[in-house]
Amino acid sequence: DVYKRQYQRRVRGSQRFPMRVLGMRWLVVMLAASLIAGDGVRSLTRPASHPLIARLQSRLESSLVAMNKTVPPALHEAAELVSDQLIATQLAVPRHSPDITAVGYPLTIAESIALKVGIIQRLDKKISNTSEAYHVLIRLAALVSAHGWEDPQVRSYYRGIQFFGGETLPLLDVGWANEFLGTLTEYFGPNHGIHAYHKVPWNTGKGYDYQFSVSSLPPPVLPRTSRGLKIGLLADWGCGTKESQAVLSALQAEAPDMVVHLGDVYYSGTVAEQHQFLIHPLRQAFTRGERMFAIPGNHDYYSGGQGMKEVLKSFNQTASYFCLRNEHWQILALDTGVLDSFNLVSGAAHPMPFLPDDQLAWALHQIQVGQEQGLKTIVMSHHQFFSRRDSVGVANAGLFELATLPDQLRGTFVTSEWWTKNSSQLPGHLPEGVAPAANTRLLDQFNQSVREYVSAFYWGHEHTHSIFKPYAGIKRGRLIGNGCIPVVKDYDVYGSNPNTQAAPWGGHPQHVPGPRVGHGDRFWNFGFVTLELTESSAEAKHFQVEITDEELAGAGYRVDMFYQETY
């Protein structure tokens, strides 16, 4: 009854429907037309075996004929491949794809063909033929026309553009449907919305076990001329593509002693995705005894977090958050993903992620220990404490809060944040429903004195890179989320978001002058960071990896260390 009363008020109000793929108006229109048409519409060529895909195929073919266009054989081939994948998924037939389904490749081919002949433009007038996303897909359509959809060149090109488009609706890799399907399976499958999160143990009479998931920073693997422990940082890196492999190879050349991944294995963090895109490549690249660590992002929980459990087991890591210490430094790595695990609704009402009660108490205790022992502390998380370009969400969003009920009733985690503090009671004191430039829930959990004590914050989530000036009490906010997701170069990653409120903090975050990530022929450059910790200081080096069209075809790349700082 308490939960019911809290949520009845908040579930009211508009919530926009899900995820990236439903932002593709042309696809929604086409699917709706296919469903309405029923069985009366027949394919002009051979119909696909799955009835829904056969209807979609029929609408595409009819549109082509009405425009005096030839129906390409690749359209049927793509439709049949999508059908096979959907039927295999429904029948639980073993598949080679690590994703929920392998529909991304054939559906993106169908999308590119529909774009090439003008169908998409007729359904969505916002499509621009000058955009980089348009040219990315037109090139795919040209390759399919020249070589056929099974040709290795076509598959290689798709792998080079896979995962693009999260920032550039309505044209994107349709494989993003898997993040929605992963969440759908989690909430309506056998898990019933319960996620694999290991909360801090509670001892009756003693409280939380603050030694849980706390250990020593590992020593250097091999003796070096310098005295430092070198840490490699990756974020939003779990793609399994040529780009992610190039980033890994460049990091490998820097010979780190340990590697930390700040979350997100795509599309939805399935067990197979975690093994193929994170665990296996890291184990293959680092064979000298380097330690691996990882914290989850939102994508790691879309399929329930079972894949993340495999990561923790493989890395010999106690929990999805951890604290590492030596005599001079401590690294505090947080799990902000568990409260951003619901992807069935989207839009302005998305809530800001923060820490559940157990992890917050644990994290603040580690901060206190660091202060008492005179340690320098570095905080790592998947989600941002603030953003210039992205929206970090709003204070309350009813359906997302409701989605945590299975976990809270089961005792997976507990949080009272949503109904004990509203937006006006949080830092910035903004009205309810206003999206701030800073995550005011995290700012509230980590107060001004804590934020000022921390030497540096590193986070991902946004698929780009930024070195920020001091902001919201944070001396060094470092966005390093350009691990593998391709972001088209005409998307302004350094612009400010006009829809977020930044006045309480003196305007939107500003970049440190000078260091900017460049771009290749199509996409912004990818990257990683190394930290070398000595007794007195940390030396951070930021690297970018450029991959042009020509290099992508030959798996080549260029690496540049473009920013360095010591603190």
What's the helical proportion of residues? 25-40%
Number of strands: 15
Strand order of the largest sheet: 3-7-8-9-10-12-11
Q: What integer is the average pLDDT?
A: 87
Low-pLDDT runs:
1-18
Radius of gyration: 24 Å
Mass-distribution shape: globular
The major beta sheet can be summarized as: 7 strands, mixed
Report how far the terminal alpha carbons are from each other: 51 Å
Q: Strand share of the residues? A: 5-15%
| Oligomer state of the chains in this structure | single chain
Task: Determine the structural class based on helices, strands and strand pairing.
Answer: alpha/beta
> How many DSSP H or I helices?
19
Provide the descriptors you would attach to this structure in a database record.
single chain; 567 residues; alpha/beta; 6-stranded mixed β-sheet; disordered N terminus
Architecture overview:
- The termini are far apart.
- The protein has helices at residues 2-11, 25-37, 51-66, 73-90, 104-116, 119-123, 132-147, 152-161, 177-188, 242-253, 271-285, 306-314, 357-372, 398-402, 405-410, 417-420, 440-445, 448-453, 549-554, and strands at 202-203, 207-208, 214-216, 229-234, 258-261, 291-294, 322-325, 329-333, 376-380, 456-459, 465-467, 477-480, 526-533, 538-546, 558-566.
- The chain is an alpha/beta fold and 567 residues long.
- The relative contact order is 0.11.
- It is 35% helix and 13% strand.
